[in-house]
Amino acid sequence: MSAEASNQQKQTNGYLFGKWISGIVFTFFIALLGFLLAKVPGFDHVGQLACAIIIAIIYRQFFGYPEVLRAGITFSSQKLLRLAIILYGLKLNINTVFHDGIGLLLRDALVILLAIGVMIWLGKVFKADKHITLLLGVGTGVCGAAAIAAVAPIVKTKDEDTAISVGIIALMGTVFAIGYTLIEPFLPLTPIEYGIWSGISLHELAHVAIAAEPAGEDALAIALLAKLGRVFLLVPLCFILIYWMKFKNKGNQTQNKIAFPWFLLGFILMSLFGSYVLGDTIPVSEMTMERISSATTWILTAAMVGLGLNVSLKALRSKALKPLLAITITSCFLSVIAYFIT
CA triplet 322, 211, 325: central angle to 5 degrees? Predict the structure, then answer.
């Protein structure tokens, strides 16, 4: 290769690398806007993740998809998403779940089965989009956006369907979390019972924290423990879905090829590392763990921005209304069932 051709190749590679980096920076910029919007009264209960997705969807409608940045945006929505799921494993203390939460784990399993089963049934009744319905069932039963992000590549959903599902789950979880805090003083439940109810029925870890914190430290502690049990069950659920997808597509060689979700092994390893190494073998301050948790949120938000940029309002209108109705009914049903098994 001549010197001139070599220089041209370097310039081309540099240009492509610049667009790739710019795309990633763009997703983090919108994540920043989501963070700032979440500080505004009224949006503070919605959270950074949902606010960033809203901004990304609005951007797409007014300015279109930024094609020149596609490589970096795709990297965020795929690679950074998996990194966020792996880091999310640090939130799961397996030791605590096994020692203190076996009874809660059984109730968690029941909630997950009911959430997915009722959502799929209602999806058929309302003739809703089956992929969004399934994702919402998993998100409602397990741990919101993180569960949706983990399951989406397994069931091969479109990016826009994943983004729509995350937006709906964030909205629904926020509404229910605020609703729980409003009715908590009028419920005939002890703080521990209220915490269990919140932990086994609300959508996201953040929603559980919002709802349980006003009832006191004991309520918050048991609520988070109950929620961690649902996070723990994400791993076996994913493997069940892998088997189900292979069985469903048996005989169809194209559809039957399901890439193994290696990031789940990372999730498990990080859970084990956080449960049995950090704090024992390797001392880590609470502030460090909070920073890691914050970094995980930022990475997940940037990834969701990448997904949100794939959503058109036309698709939102045609796909979101029926699943929204289904998840509303399912969430109400789960709250009632969880109340009586608390």
Answer: 5
pLDDT of residue 1: 53
Which candidate, 224, 258, 219, places its Cα nearest to that of 238? 258
With beta carbons less than 8 A apart as the criterion, state whether 15 and 44 touch: no
Q: Does pTM surpass 0.85?
A: no
Q: Identity (one letter) of the amino acid at 281?
A: T
**pLDDT of 11:** 59
Nearest by Cα to 133 from 144, 148, 150, 120? 120
Measured distance CA(340)–CA(327) in Å, rounded: 20
Measured in whole angstroms, the distance separating CA 223 from the mean position of its chain's CA atoms is: 18
pLDDT at res. 119? 97
**How distant, in Å, are the alpha carbons of 99, 106, 139, 200, 341 from that of 103?**
10, 6, 22, 11, 11
**Residues 333 and 125: beta-carbon distance below 8 Å:** no
Predicted pLDDT at 4: 59
CA angle, 98 then 101 then 105, to 5°? 95
Q: How far apart are the first and last CA of the chain?
A: 72
Q: Distance between CA atoms of 229 and 92, rounded to whole angstroms?
A: 8
Give the other-Cβ count within 10 Å of 51's Cβ: 24
- Predicted local distance difference test score (pLDDT) of residue 10: 59
pLDDT of residue 136: 96
6 Cβ contact list (under 8 Å, min separation 6) = none
| Residue listed under structure tokens 């938000």 | 301
Cβ–Cβ contacts within 10 Å for residue 188, how many? 6
CA pair distance 22, 27, nearest whole angstrom: 9
Provide CB contacts within 8 A for 45, sequence distance 6+: 174, 177, 178, 210
Q: Which of 258, 311, 255 is nearest to 132 (CA)?
A: 311
Residue 285: what pLDDT?
A: 79
List Cα–Cα distances, 341 to 107, 193, 336, in angstroms: 8, 10, 9
Q: Extract the residue ranges of the chain whose pLDDT is less than 50.
A: none
